[in-house]
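Give me structure tokens for this 376-residue protein.
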Amino acid sequence: MIDFNVPPYVGNELKYVEEAVVKNRKLCGDGPFTKKCSEWLEEKTGTQKALLITSCTHATELAALLTDIKEGDEVIMPSYTFVSTADAFVLRGAKVVFVDIRPDTMNIDESKIEEAITERTRAIVPVHYAGVSCEMDKIMELARKYHLYVIEDAAQGVLSTYKGQALGTIGDFGCYSFHETKNYSMGEGGALLIRDPQYVERAEIIREKGTNRAKFFRGQIDKYTWVDAGSSYLPGDMNAAYLYGQLEAAQQIFDDRMRSWKLYDKLLRPLADQGKIELPVVPEGCTHNAHMYYIKAKDLKERTALIQFLKENGIQAVFHYIPLHSAPAGKQFGRFHGEDVYTTKESERLARLPMYYGLKEEQVQYIADKIAEFYQ
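Here you go.
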């Protein structure tokens, strides 16, 4: 069986975990490896501050707290996303307003956002699907015009860019995921990227259970105390040690995944040219990180048959994201603004193919051959 995902492992991860345990004797949050990961993210992305967090879900929750999202507020996002994107704001009592997606990138349709803005709107949450950027110039223009926050869900976008800027650094806040299904993994984990220095101190306080402990550790105060409402968003330093082993080898992982992505694209292009499938689109000005490779079948029936055919041939392909507005909680906590032209239709066509560090060329060739066989 060719698995859909295999968590990355490059070689130094366990050495660093052992170092955290035996040498550093620091297992809780904000140890030496947490610091190394945060510094790496700041250097690579150019963000003002990167805070390692327990998950991308929690990074989004922290962004919702920092922007003071509260009951009665509205937050605009696509319906084609993971539930965490919405949960962070629903927990604050906000109403989620879904708008349609673009069929080419599966990202939020930037042309549909403005008409969904009301006097209650507080934030726009673009989701960079497959590590391919949303149209951020237009989104930032709307945010400035209506005085809205922009919180980027860049869970899939580590090392992707938009017009030279790292995803997650364009809006007010950016949220990364280091879940085991992502390009770089610590099992469960994420990061919050903060653009504006004015939010850094409060973010550190909320992340540290509402205390000013971070300032204490930097020697800025002689004792720490409870100063704000907060929670515990600190991953253990063993998890950070595992992640750092991969961040050190980030280019190696990136290059390996990109080889697979490009090979898929080359081998499946003839089927696309025949009009039998559609392939991913990467708009001009965007660079992606080979987070996923997907194809689109004609419709739900064909996709179901394709996934079953691949399974019978030892290939695990998957679909995901039942549009949130059609889910029970989506109907309770949100509303869809405008017409659902593409969200449901396109979500029912998309199938994700195996993609991970270490996927072999012959495996990609076999998968492409079986897809071609299905369409014959």
